[in-house]
Amino acid sequence: MPAVDVADVQRTGTEIRVRFASEEQAVRIESALAVAFPQLEMPAVDPIPAIGIDHRIKSEWDDGFVLEIEATNNSAIATRLSLPLQIVATIEDVWGGSFKQAAGSALITSDKPIEPGETWDFGMKAKGSDHSFSLSPAVTTIEAEETETVGGSDGVSAPEPEPEPKASMPAPTPDATSYAPALDPGQDAKRNILDLLGGVYDGGWEWENIEVMQDSEGPYLRTHMGEGLYVGDKGKQRGAGFDTRTLHAEHAILEYDLRLKPGFDPVKGGKLPGLMAGDSPSGHKEADNGITARIMWRRDAQGELYLYYPEMEKSYGDSIGRGSFTFDTSGAWHTIRQEVKLNDVGQSNGFIRVWYDDRLAIERTGLRLRTKDSVLIEGMMHTIFFGGGDRSWAASRDEYVDTRNFRISTP
Predict the structure, then answer these.
(1) Same domain for 343 and 398?
(2) Residues 123 and 32 both lie in one domain
(3) Residue 402 above 50 pLDDT?
(4) Residue 145: what pLDDT?
């Protein structure tokens, strides 16, 4: 007989209960016992579902709703969980997992392995007047080492019975590198921003909080944020921001290296650099004439795309792919890569992708990023700060974020 993995053994008086690592193994042993001891009567046992599911609608409005789901792993192994869902509305975002949707059905997958007995809590935001949905009782599990989750994906392929592992997707090979400035450690931040990085005065603030530093690998920018401060503390060490305007393109790739202070405390969240177009909207500004596609950290150093664009839900940016990757807070350098393709005017065929190091973490397609041909990608919005709209976002201690090796290419 093939080897059998026993997950747990419990003895109470004359009764022994054995829990196997899979239902297949339990059935195999039950069949063997029936052959070896035909006089035995096997008691009927109600099987415990591999996944326990609970859900509630957290909020709803005429054109959408937010659904919260809890899925408990009742199996004996740590796995990524995948939940089939029948839904008419369009899923816009999932936090705590990733999704695929097509033709009234969707598949939501946990963003990390769920240990035996632990619960996967995740939320889903959907857009549409039809709020009906149903959760399938068939919940598939995916071995943790066999798959790589991609958050915020809304691909158009129909959900498969067992999701395929997401391959690491490299950025397309650029045809031209249009932006690769070299920092000058002998100049202060203002001179580097204006003279070398292509920054502009309009949109710039608190550059005195940026320090130009150098190590054995070359120069870099260090943006300081003071204890108890957030972006609303004007005139103080609240971080800094500037726009660069160095190109006019419909399709561009931004890369830069990022390092968080060792032991960085993310509190509730904050902003990091990303590509921008047009008038680079932010701070509750309408996004009719531009976009900003910044990266953001959230609680527990979860990463996301923070997008201002014409179809954003509220007066501030949409949170896309939250938790699809996690920032390293050990003090090591990592690479952010972001690809933005603007839509053809009148169509929703734009897309944005984000990589953390070499792993594709976020992909959002079918975007209407502009309504005018005059809106083009012009450069990078380099903002680094805690916030957030109130003091609950403030830094818990003095923090800093380092950036270097800025590159913009046009595929």
Answers:
(1) yes
(2) no
(3) yes
(4) 33
Does 254 share its domain with 398?
Answer: yes
Within this chain, do residues 188 and 329 fall inside the same structural domain, yes or no?
A: yes
Q: How confident is the prediction for the chain on average, in pLDDT?
A: 83
Residues 6+ away with beta carbon under 8 Å from 46? none
Residue 41: the pLDDT is 63
Closest alpha carbon to 274 in 248, 295, 244: 295
DSSP state of 171: P
Amino acid at 16: I
Per the structure block, which two tokens stand in for 231? 């972006």
Do 42 and 55 lie in a common domain? no
Q: What angle do CA 99, 101, 104 make, to 5 degrees?
A: 140
Main-chain dihedrals φ then ψ at residue 267, nearest 5 degrees:
50, -120
Any idea of the CA torsion for 98, 292, 58, 141, to the nearest 10 degrees? Answer: 10
pLDDT digits (tens, 9 = 90+) for 92-107: 878 777 777 766 778 7
Helix, strand or coil for residue 256?
A: strand
Is the domain of 371 the same as that of 389?
Answer: yes
> Which of 106, 130, 146 delimits the end of a domain?
146
Tokens 């052959």 — which residue? 35
DSSP secondary-structure letter at 158?
A: P
Domain that holds residue 25: 1-46
What are the respective helix, strand and coil percentages of the chain, to the nearest 5? Answer: 10, 45, 45
